[in-house]
Amino acid sequence: MEASTLLNSGTPDRAGPAGAGRTAAFSVRPRRNAARQQRAAAVAGAEAGQAAPTPLQIAILDRDSGFLVVLAKRLERLEWKHHELSATIPTKTIASMDLDALIVDPAVLGPRFWDWLERLCQARPKFRIIVCTGPSTVTERVRALEMGVDDWLSKPCHPEELLARIEAVVGHRRRPEPRSLETITAGELDIRRDQYQAFAGGLSLNLTRREFELIELLASATNEVFERELIYKRLWGPGMVRNDRSLDVFVHKLRRKLEAASPGWRYIHTHWGLGYRFAAEPSENSELAPELAPRELEPVSELAGTRLAA
User: Peptide bond before 156: cis, by omega within 30 degrees of 0?
Assistant: First the structure.
């Protein structure tokens, strides 16, 4: 048996939305690591007859020495490559790195974390972003997810959970299907897959990565109803937890941007008890369809009752 500690935030001078935590001991069976290595190989796209998969590339922005030591040992055991970053590295430089995931603690950046995160997300990195920090508020987690963060984990946390979160957010991205780059046109909307962005009247909607993934998924099957659980699995990876409203928050946010950019059209339609459908239809206020039925309302706020999950 091997003893290790919870990945923990116990440094007394930490700033920002992080806090101190306690440590605890646990045991891990050696066979778990072998199983995880097999899953990592599958995640990396290993198939019969193909070359051996490349290891995951992980970057860490944290100053908690205990956290870094424990995590580094785990990543080395899995043969995943990892890099410890400095808070002084420009966000554009980080965004250009060939990574699979970035783990960041807002406490390292202090009050400038939100501006830093916004710049990083606007640079549209190809890797996944996981925030791992101390206690936080619902508002902070929602704000981060809306910006483009893929997961938010609170310290102290179990190393196995953090590694599982990495696998979950990276997994579905590293099993890509052949992806069309053709532009999808609907109503006044152009969804440009080559730019990971949508435009209305030639103006960008400034979608986050997750918002773009959502509209691209729905628009790829125009007029077909996507079940909520299927959308969640395609965008987040793991199965949706009961009462999880993360998807509804993103749909609500995306609808607001669509309405602002193209007020004469409705694009995302709710099918109660099932999911969502994409179709360009003139809105009830549009001169194109004055007799259109009243608009569906989404019975969810951006914050209330929201459970955020990876």
Answer: yes
